């Protein structure tokens, strides 16, 4: 049983991935610094998120910003289908979690409807954001969902255990009056933001080349407060003096319905 879990776990376990990818440079994307991880401009990422988030807000029929997980849990069970329809109408495609086509890889992410053009923001990597100096040891134990950014910032995308509790606590802490500043629904089977499934995208291999890549994205101060409730990330510390870090996945080529998403890792070249 442990071996079966490891064969699934290893596809996202960073030390195993780095060791194995280092033997195959075709699965690595080399950059010289953080600014060069940009496949598309940050402004283009912002425009995509704003278009989707505004459509999601409208689809809720004028509910007050901040009416969130507790209320949404009482909505009809087809609500998640409504949100996927909104995604399709806004961006022209849908992505969903399904069993991976890779043997022993557990869950993967598939394009289930529509067409993803090259250079599109196709998913977001949710989770608690830790600065390089902040403690994450307990949360990282047997956790295959810790993503390391180029500058050492970590994003814990685990939706279970301690990680789940930490995210909920930090999200509640950062509420601004009636406004929520992050989305906790990605911790459930029906994320309110249908892009918030990026932690389940498996890594590429020789047989399954990458069709998406990670891109770091700092949320600008101008991002509307009423739309921040759809951001699936929150800072671990309330004293963080920098913009909220998000990680998005950007398509490297056109992707059609039925295809699974596979990502590559970048490596710093000095």
UniProtKB/TrEMBL annotation:
It comes from the Eukaryota. InterPro entries: SET_dom, SET_dom_sf, SETD9. CDD domains: SET_SETD9 (cd10537). Residues 93-266 form the SET domain. PANTHER family: C5ORF35, SET DOMAIN-CONTAINING PROTEIN 9. This is SET domain containing 9. It comes from Fundulus heteroclitus (Killifish).
